[in-house]
Backbone:
């Protein structure tokens, strides 16, 4: 899906702010036509924002089902004759949208943008009542999957198999925008270069056939560097500025749909960067230069706003990444906001872009995450319905992010069960689909500790190996000597069996900020540093390791559990972004590491 942009032919009205709010306690609100009038009660909610931490009411926080959001919207007078589109950055996890008394559409899945053409329902210069029923329920037809349990006392409980809190709400901006009847519906840009000449291949789709012209503009200088006509083709950029990790470097592809007299009907601008990504033996190459990933798996997670996007928090997180010497991150465990991805494109932050496929693992979760155990790939757990949604999530993620230079790997799942023979049939079509949607980027998935190289059945289908390993934390807890030996042995096994680049996408230890000990005691800041040092040593000694992304950038909220004290505490930073001792250690390592020089952002000079 294309981003919403402003141009000479497109305008945007942002609908963020305070909305009316009601909890649909019995989940009968749609049948009862709650949307047909002003919502009952006088509660209000912030958009964007998660609902859960806003109200001083535990029943609201724990509600399983619908929240109703509502506001009145004025349509700009000047939009007469234009198509009028209502666009949501995301609604977690599902939404039903009403304009006045009429349902205009539904969306399934919590982390993707969606939009509806509401031209026929509204009048420029007039107002309408916009109501959204947001649903926080997860079941086996969802990615991520979950299950709603009915307790003997009648309460409903949402169970899920992932380790982050099930925040819900309108997490990203809601926009009303205008576009012409004949408009650009898709743009696909792929790039390459020879010597100092960049090659840009473009393809434009439009709602009705007609003449198309494109121009390539250097975003830095504003200069037009190439022009061409047609819905597809390749143009060259002389003296090209490559998109470079740690630096950025963007161009705009300006697409003009023209009428027969050459007048502009629709203007759409898509940014892109000229760069290549390739795997060569153990090496991960960006612009034919070996790239070593430093950084984190992160979460969209902050106090009060939960999983909502906020520009201020985004800038702070990105600045801390730069300060600590991180050149990359993984959007664990779902696609992040378009604003965040745009920022990464602009600033040269390298991204492993992940689908929301987390928790596809009943075996592991049996013990740790309260699934009750059992076979993963069976009816009602991860089945054909789950797979169909998983495919849709892949299609939508690639459609949204395919033009982003920052994205260098598609991660199609986090820690699925890959020990079951059925995992092969589940994953093969997904890998094929991802390659079909985007033949230009390596495809990977993130492997769980319980599926080492001699057990995992699906690694051979992928281009890179991504491992989450907790030696010294979940296994051999507190014993760093044994951990070092076992971890090194395992990496040797992966290296010899697959001869592919390995990125360690998680390694970490829960740490309570301020807790210290002269002994290597788990949960202390001292242990976290000792643990990281041990891991660093193991990485440095393995030639196939091309990256380390520590778990996690910051402490984050989870559901309750005996191993979680007010959330997951594996952050290098606390939830309010104060550095633990680990942050200082990582900074020292990453800012001086020779292997990670390409792509390092010079924090001071920027
Ligand atoms: C891994 C998961 C991650 C968890 C982490 C942990 O990928 O979501 O938060 O472990 O336990 O299994 O801290």
Residues:
């Amino acid at each position: 899906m294309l981003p919403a942009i402003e141009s000479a032919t497109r305008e945007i009205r942002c609908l963020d702010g305070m909305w009316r709010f009601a909890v649909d306690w019995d989940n009968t609100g749609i049948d009862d036509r709650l949307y047909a009038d002003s919502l009952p009660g006088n509660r209000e909610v912030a958009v964007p924002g998660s609902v859960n931490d806003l109200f001083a009411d535990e029943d609201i926080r724990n509600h399983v089902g619908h929240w109703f959001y509502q506001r009145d919207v004025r349509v700009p007078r000047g939009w007469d004759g234009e198509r009028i589109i209502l666009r949501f950055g995301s609604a977690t996890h599902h939404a039903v949208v009403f304009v006045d008394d009429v349902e205009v559409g539904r969306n399934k899945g919590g982390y993707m943008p969606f939009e509806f053409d509401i031209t026929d329902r509204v009048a420029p210069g007039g107002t309408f009542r916009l109501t959204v029923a947001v649903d926080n329920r997860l079941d086996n037809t969802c990615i991520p999957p979950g299950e709603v349990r009915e307790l003997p006392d009648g309460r409903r409980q949402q169970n899920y198999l992932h380790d982050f809190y099930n925040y819900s709400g309108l997490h990203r901006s809601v926009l009303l925008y205008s576009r012409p009847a004949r408009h650009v519906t898709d743009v696909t840009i792929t790039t390459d270069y020879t010597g100092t000449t960049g090659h840009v291949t473009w393809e434009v789709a439009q709602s009705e056939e007609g003449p198309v012209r494109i121009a390539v503009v250097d975003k830095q200088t504003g200069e037009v560097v190439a022009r061409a006509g047609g819905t597809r083709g390749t143009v060259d950029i002389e003296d090209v500025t490559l998109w470079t990790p740690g630096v950025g470097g963007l161009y705009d592809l300006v697409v003009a749909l023209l009428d027969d007299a050459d007048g502009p009907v629709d203007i759409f601008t898509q940014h892109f960067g000229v760069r290549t990504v390739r795997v060569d033996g153990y090496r991960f190459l960006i612009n034919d230069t070996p790239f070593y990933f430093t950084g984190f798996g992160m979460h969209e997670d902050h106090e009060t706003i939960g999983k909502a996007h906020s520009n201020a928090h985004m800038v702070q997180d990105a600045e801390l990444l730069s300060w600590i010497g991180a050149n990359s991150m993984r959007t664990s465990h779902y696609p992040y906001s378009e604003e965040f991805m745009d920022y990464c494109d602009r600033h040269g932050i390298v991204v492993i872009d992940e689908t929301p496929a987390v928790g596809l693992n009943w075996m592991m979760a049996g013990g740790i995450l309260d699934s009750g155990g059992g076979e993963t790939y069976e009816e009602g757990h991860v089945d054909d319905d789950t797979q169909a949604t998983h495919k849709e999530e892949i299609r939508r993620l690639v459609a949204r992010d395919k033009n982003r230079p920052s994205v260098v790997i598609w991660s199609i799942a986090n820690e699925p069960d890959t020990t079951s023979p059925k995992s092969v049939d589940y994953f093969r079509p997904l890998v094929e689909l991802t390659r079909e949607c985007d033949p230009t980027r390596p495809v990977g998935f993130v492997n769980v500790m319980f599926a080492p190289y001699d057990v995992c059945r699906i690694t051979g289908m992928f281009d890179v190996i991504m491992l989450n390993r907790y030696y010294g934390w979940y296994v051999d807890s507190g014993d760093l000597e044994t951990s070092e030996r076992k971890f090194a042995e395992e990496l040797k096994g992966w290296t010899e069996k697959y001869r592919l680049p390995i990125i360690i996408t998680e390694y970490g230890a829960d740490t309570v900020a301020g807790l210290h000990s002269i002994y290597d005691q788990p949960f202390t800041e001292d242990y976290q540093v000792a643990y990281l040092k041990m891991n660093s040593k193991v990485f440095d000694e393995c030639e196939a390791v091309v990256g380390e992304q520590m778990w996690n950038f910051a402490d984050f909220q989870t559901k309750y559990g005996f191993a979680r004290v007010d959330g997951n505490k594996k952050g290098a930073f606390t939830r309010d972004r104060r550095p633990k001792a680990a942050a200082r250690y990582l900074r020292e390592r990453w800012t001086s590491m020779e292997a990670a020089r390409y792509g390092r952002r010079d924090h001071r000079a920027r």
Q: What stands out?
A: The domain at 184-275 is CATH 2.60.40.10 (Immunoglobulin-like). Residues 480-498 form the longest helix (19 residues). Residues 114 and 303 are 26 Å apart (CA to CA). The first strand starts at residue 11 and ends at 14.
